[in-house]
Amino acid sequence: MSQSEPPAEPPVAGRPVVLRGGTVLTMGDASTVLPDADVLVVGDRLAAVGSGLDVPEGTREIDARGGIVMPGMIDTHRHMWQTAMRGYGADWTLTQYFVWYYLEHGKHFRPQDIAAGNRLSAIESLDAGVTTTVDWSHGLQSVEHAEAAVEALRSVPGRFVLAYGNIQAGPWEWTADPAVRALLERLRDGGDDLMGVQIAFDVTGDPSFPERAAFEAARELGIPVTTHAGVWAATNDDGIRLMHEHGFMTPETIYVHAATLTADSYQRIAATGGSISVATESECSAGQGHAPTAQVLQYGIPVSLSMDTSVWWSGDMFSAMRATLNADRMAEHMDAHLKGDTITHLRLRAQRVVEWATRGGAAALGRDDIGSLQAGKRADVVLIKNDRSPVSFPLLNPYGHVAFQAQRADVHTVLVNGRVVKFAHELVGIDLAPVRTEIEDTLDHLRSTLGEEVWAHGMFPELPSAEAEVLDNPYRYSDYKDQSKRAGGEERVLGR
Ligand SMILES: [Zn+2]
């Protein structure tokens, strides 16, 4: 489309769509790059991928020339409810995050506040080409909160997984609640391809392993567990060991961060087939530990990428890919420099992080029908193309372009399950005005409940007085004290 033409109308729902003449990254087993290729979508499926495709009569053509066509991106860990406080915690550490949400103010979120954050976050995903998002929803203090979370996700035409959690109570408590179980069963049995379910809780390392009952509930229900593992000063090797010794490490398990762990834990993860969700921007800024990219390569652990929470960072996988490459390369160079060596060949390539952001997420979620562009798969497709941008050409290294050059404003078209949800850089059928009103209501509620002084102080916190209680264990539900985190305790070995 030249700049003088009026903006084109979005494709009509239900009609076939073909993206013509783009550079297609299939992200299949062979990770093929197809120059000047077409992607045909019929119904909710990819009907064909190749050059000069014949298409059914009435197919809407989208000009993809000069652009990159790739699978929809997948975020395997985002606390979507916290998007209602976008950017509030920009200068937080993980400790300040724990104090704010876990210990002090997370309990003030009403069901409608969970819904407000979820809806905005879900829309943000589509805008950025993230077609599948795992809602690591650990603010579900009641089933009403969970119903609100689900309603909000269903109101946005993306693919989501509700990872049910509740930081205000022990996971052995809420997983025993018949009402919670009924909701989990409903999501599991719903047959809704756009809504999956996981159970989300952390393992503190308490030797009495109180989380055991929650793992047993997950196993009974046949629902995968996602857990923050290897988070400095919160979860560590003890949690991994307890999970392993009791037989709860499975191929479906997702270990979020998995940063501050020893070789023994990475071996247990690799041996049991689970995957690690790397949230590099979070790990760099909050302090869970260095993103474990060296270890996942070393031990052959499957990887997906995630954004964690928009209380710091926006829900944007371009940022995730870029941060992950940068952090790995910084570590590789620094480790070499400390030994007087020079890195001449990088171990982590741009292609790899694009894989992690697409098919890696699909594999982590046990979905072989998304994450790549191959005939027969679900049609979750992103076109990156911005003819007005000087950053859009030349297009020489397509993986490098996605990871280091592109950004959300370059996302031209997005399809989820064959439905066009963004076209010509505009979201289709989504009105932000009521979403803005809903967010404002949540902020009014929080500010009036907390008071302006507490609200302002929370955004610009002073350094915490070293309260041992907070630093030892952010979870209210256990009195367990981890001696390894105290002065004079056992020397810790960093993950890298
Ligand atoms: Zn998290």
Overview of this protein structure:
The chain is α/β, with parallel strands linked by helices and 496 residues long. The protein folds into two domains: 102 residues, Roll (Urease, subunit C, domain 1), CATH 2.30.40; 292 residues, Metal-dependent hydrolases (TIM Barrel), CATH 3.20.20. The chain contains 16 helices and 17 strands. The strands form two sheets. Strands 1, 2, 3, 4, 5, 14, 15, 16 and 17 form a nine-stranded mixed sheet that branches. Strand 11, helix 8 and strand 12 form a beta-alpha-beta unit. The chain is globular and about 65 Å long. Zinc ion (ZN) binds next to loops. The site of zinc ion has 6 residues, from loops.
In short:
By secondary structure, this protein is of the alpha/beta class. It is built from 16 helices and 17 strands.
